[in-house]
Amino acid sequence: MTTPSRPPAVSAVSLDIWGTLLGSDPAFKPARNAMLRDALAPDVATDVFDAAMRQADRDVDDRVVVDGVDVGFAGRVEQTLLRLGMTAAAVAERAPELMARQETLALAHPPRPLVPGLPAAVSALPVPVVLTSNTGMLPGELMRKLLALAGFGGLPGVFSNEVGVAKPRPEIFAEACSTLGVPASQVLHVGDNPIADVHGAEAAGMSAALVRPDGESTLDALRGIA
Ligand SMILES: [Mg+2]
Fold first, then answer.
1. So which residues are the signal peptide here (predicted)?
2. Which of 75, 111, 126, 225 has its CA 20 to 30 A from that of 82?
3. What's the CA-to-centroid distance between 210 and ligand 1, angstroms?
């Protein structure tokens, strides 16, 4: 994995969230999927619904790195129902209620730092930091609460559902640089996805470091920023 050849001047850092800083609580997705299944597809077996949700999520993520079109909670639930051969017509109307229930479950099972030392390592960075994330099922508004619970509170966040496009599109990286108030050429983006994070950031004029999604790799990358 790359440790980045350090650019001449790193004046600020942009950090991916999932697989770079945070991982899910293993209890969250099963609880969230059970809630959605009970609400929308009670006749579908739990394992069948879980598999459809997982596959829909993956299919959407595979498309996002190609076209950068952000697909959020409702879109991913719709894709799950379509995979199950069901109609997705009810999802849009019920999305606010289902999102609220998802939020309750996420706050009860918040994500965790991939390794315990990560929040302190991010706080200790001597340069400004922004979090730049494709939000998927969990929108920025909820992510801010979850980040605070995981020890990353108070950091500015640039979230795909709020920007309207996802990494690897340059607009989201431009928004991150603008939040930092630093030219792209002086910003290092750290993330675990070679396309969304590395190609995306480099195409936006930033430098990039690819990390393994194990937390330790992120710690190594952060140690290199002095
Ligand atoms: Mg990631």
1. none
2. 111
3. 10
The reply to whether the predicted model has a pTM over 0.85 is yes
Q: Tell me how far apart the alpha carbons of residues 74 and 64 are, in angstroms, rounded to a whole number.
A: 15
For residues 119 and 148, is the Cβ–Cβ distance under 8 A? no
Computed on alpha carbons and rounded to an integer, the radius of gyration of the chain in Å comes to 18
Q: Tell me the CATH architecture of domain 12-25+111-223.
A: 3-Layer(aba) Sandwich (3.40)
Whether the per-residue pLDDT at 5 is higher than 70: the answer is: no
Average pLDDT over residues 122-130: 97
Domain boundaries, the chain: 12-25+111-223, 28-108
Residue 16 Cα to ligand 1 middle (Å): 6
98 alpha carbon – ligand 1 mean position (Å): 25
Centre of ligand 1 to C-alpha 134, Å, is: 8
- Furthest C-alpha separation in the chain: 58
Measured in Å, residue 90 CA sits from the centre of ligand 1 at 30
Whole-number Å distance, alpha carbon 4 to ligand 1 midpoint, is 17
Q: What is the DSSP letter of 197?
A: I
Ion ligand 1 contact residues with beta carbon within 5 A: 16, 18-19, 192
Q: Are 180 and 155 in contact (CB under 8 A)?
A: no
